[in-house]
Design brief:
The protein is of the alpha/beta class. The protein is built from 13 helices and 14 strands. It has helices at residues 24-34, 43-57, 78-99, 144-147, 153-173, 194-215, 224-227, 240-246, 276-282, 298-308, 328-342, 369-386, 431-446; strands spanning 62-67, 103-108, 121-124, 127-130, 231-236, 247-249, 256-258, 263-266, 288-292, 317-321, 347-350, 358-359, 365-366, 392-396. The protein starts with 23 loop residues before the first helix and ends with a helix. It binds phosphoenolpyruvate (PEP) and manganese (II) ion. Residues 69, 116, 236, 267-269, 291, 322, 354, 426 line the site of phosphoenolpyruvate.
Amino acid sequence: MTRRWTPDSWQACEARQLPDYDDKAALAAVTQQLSTQPPLVFAGEARELKRSLGEAGAGRAFLLQAGDCAETFVNFHPDAIRDTFRVILQMAAVLTYASKLPIVKMGRMAGQFAKPRSAPSETHGDVTLPAWRGDSINDIAFTAEARHADPARMLRAHSQSAATLNHLRAMSSGGYANLREVQSWTHAFMNQSPWADRYRALADRIGDALDFMEACGIDPRTQPSLQTVRFFTGHEALLLPYEQAMARADPATGEYFGTSAHFLWVGDRTRFEGSAHIEFLRGIANPIGIKCGPSLAPDTLVALLDTLNPKREAGRITLITRMGSDLIGRHLPPLIAAVAREGHEVTWCSDPMHANVVRTASGLKTRPFDRILTEVKDYFAIHRAEGSFPGGVHVEMTGLDVTECTGGAVAITADGLSDRYHTHCDPRLNAAQSLELAFLVGEMLGQ
Ligand code: PEP
Ligand code: MN
């Protein structure tokens, strides 16, 4: 039996990883208020992204999805948004140049506030408290009051998302993303990295190409695609009361869209068959992602695709594989084969971050850069061997000069991690490591 979809039909399904709000009246008041807030994105934009992702699925474009593991209230600052945005622009310039493909740019930004956790609680000494679940749910401070799930935080997450998106939209179209600025997207602190020199050389070549165009009578200033950038947002659609309140019917077609971001994905922990999260995503018309970890069986994946994309629309589904450098060789090929056998059209994307986490002797969570690279290299090699297209990458990074992942050309050692380890959740690539990764992905794409 197929249940009739409504924005709240997920409430009849098994929901994991959601907070247990004790004040139901407060929750209802907040979601009511949210449902009267402006949508953050429009249906037309989500449809445009779906078309672009369809192109990436077919090998005619490539998706770059990047940003924080978790946005937070305390780190909210225009400089931080700009710094992450400009590293994404740099990565995209490198990828465009190497691959000669349009790069679909998407930030894990302007909405990435709710986190699935491996344990529901956390113990220090003899105190046990609920885990932090992201700033839209509770606060990271280790006190009972802070860890209490407060629905009012959703309103703050919404307004921070709106302000972040406004800043991104202004930078995308207000001159900052002009290709003539390609040199100025470099950060001073990146100069120690050998990849910064390569970037400067590439930026010079782009500048020469623009000069050449201008000399031929094509004024780059009149070409919108050189002056502005299309930038999309996406986050894990984990906090369903929030996502439900932001689901709106498109007046033109009656279709429902999640208007909290252009792209929404379901995490590896909540993508089981019959889950509340799958039920919610089934009924919205956005392009959606499914995180695919090593425990996902090929038959389960096919059943999920039948549920989420019954009309087999191109660009509707992006499969974000996160297997781990040690397991990708075993687990990715059967998924690719099952999707091909069933004739489903998907866009493949590699998240080389989430299954390559290790703990250092001092207890910090880190990700060795060489494992990240190995997973990406194997992802390309496996898709090439299977005859499918490696349509994108998904990374956790920041424009800040953090030390959270070990390795890279400016090598960060396990001992050096504590220098600038600022993440609230998972370890991110810093600007230099992000650029290095972009060059290596560009090389593989260009082959
Ligand atoms: C994430 O993307 O931050 C995340 C939790 O990923 P996954 O669901 O793949 O573990
Ligand atoms: Mn993460």
